[in-house]
Amino acid sequence: MTPISFIAGIFAAIATAGAVPAVQPGEIRTFKDWAVGCDNGADCQAVSLMPEASGAVPDDWEGPISIIRTAGSDDIFKIHILFQPKQVDRYKMIVDGRLVDTGPIVQGDYPIQIVGTDARKVAQAIISGNRLVIEGPDDEIIARVSLAGSSAALRYIDQKQGRDGTGTALVAKGSRAFRPAVTKIPTISVDRWDAAKRVPETGDIIALAEDSRCKQERFGVVEDQIFPLGKRGNVYRALVLISCGTGAYNFSSAPYIGEYVENLRATSGWTFAPAKFDRQPSWGGEGADPLLVNANWNDQDRTLASYGKGRGIGDCGSAENYVWDGIMFRLIAASAMQECRGAFEWITTWRANHRPLEQVVSATD
């Protein structure tokens, strides 16, 4: 069977299992000292930023505070605060001189986590306040957070989730009944080929690099990477990441898919083409061959990650995670933070599920 026949068969099976909607990650907006965004399921997050007018630098700024709310009727509502825990075990949260919450400081990713009705109470204080301070039990300052823009950010969540004018809104309150929008997170059908270890030889990779967009960017020590993608019939495929320039904290790679057709009468050798993505990695830009940054391949899950930092401390940038579906890379997760203002908590803008193609097809039988 020819490679074209294989590809046609895969497309037909995926179409039978159900079409995947166009990938459109959510927008991130900035309101003064807060950033906010929602993903394709309308789950939203607002994150505090280092105040523009403060003159502070990330090394002496603590935060951020994140307010997270899901879109569905379950209405999961939580606030978590990211900072370096000090030698204290409890905190006091004060907004404009008024105590609004207190509780234990725990070990883990988020030393302070507030959920449910307590989180709603704190959110209301944030909306109407100007300055938030977190103190230890002896009044020592743990963190200071500007609330400028927080009301607009939470109003944006009300609008995106269809809560404005309802009793569930945080800012745009009203008497209308809230009816959650029906959102469906897409499921990617993944066609797994049989395991195989055949990959291009060193000479093939050198020739590919010389003919790639990266030829002029390969200086110093370069490290190309090769990963087998399996075989079907007499066709083998491999993922090749060609080193494409380095910076102080970002390492670029150009992804290619190599294909080898085994034939007893003649061999074609390896041929290469730029990898296809259903959503172009943000680092490479639209209209050009894809480019990944700080790429990472997970062989078990068949996922490829790109993580680009806007600056070395990692408080801004973008990240994408793709799954190889047998033909192209499909976006299953994306997050970003466009403001380089101390927010090490990036906002999720896209999410999708994935499962083996045979499971999807059997579920439709």
Structure in words:
This protein has five helices and 22 strands. Helix 1 packs across helix 5. 15% of the residues lie in helices and 36% in strands. The strands form five sheets. A six-stranded antiparallel sheet has the order 1-2-3-4-5-8, covered by helices on one side. Strands 12, 13, 14, 15 and 16 form a five-stranded antiparallel sheet that branches. It has two domains: 133 residues, Sandwich (Immunoglobulin-like); 179 residues, no CATH class. By secondary structure, it is an alpha+beta fold.
Write the layout of secondary structure elements.
Layout: H1 3-17, E1 28-31, E2 34-38, E3 44-48, E4 65-69, E5 77-81, E6 90-95, E7 98-104, E8 112-115, H2 116-128, E9 131-135, E10 141-146, H3 150-160, E11 187-190, H4 202-210, E12 225-232, E13 235-246, E14 251-261, E15 270-274, E16 292-293, E17 296-298, E18 303-309, E19 317-324, E20 329-337, E21 347-351, E22 353-356, H5 357-364
Parallel strand pairs: 11-22
Antiparallel strand pairs: 1-2, 2-3, 3-4, 4-5, 5-8, 6-7, 6-9, 9-10, 12-13, 13-14, 14-15, 14-16, 17-18, 18-19, 19-20, 20-21
Helix pairs in contact: 1-5
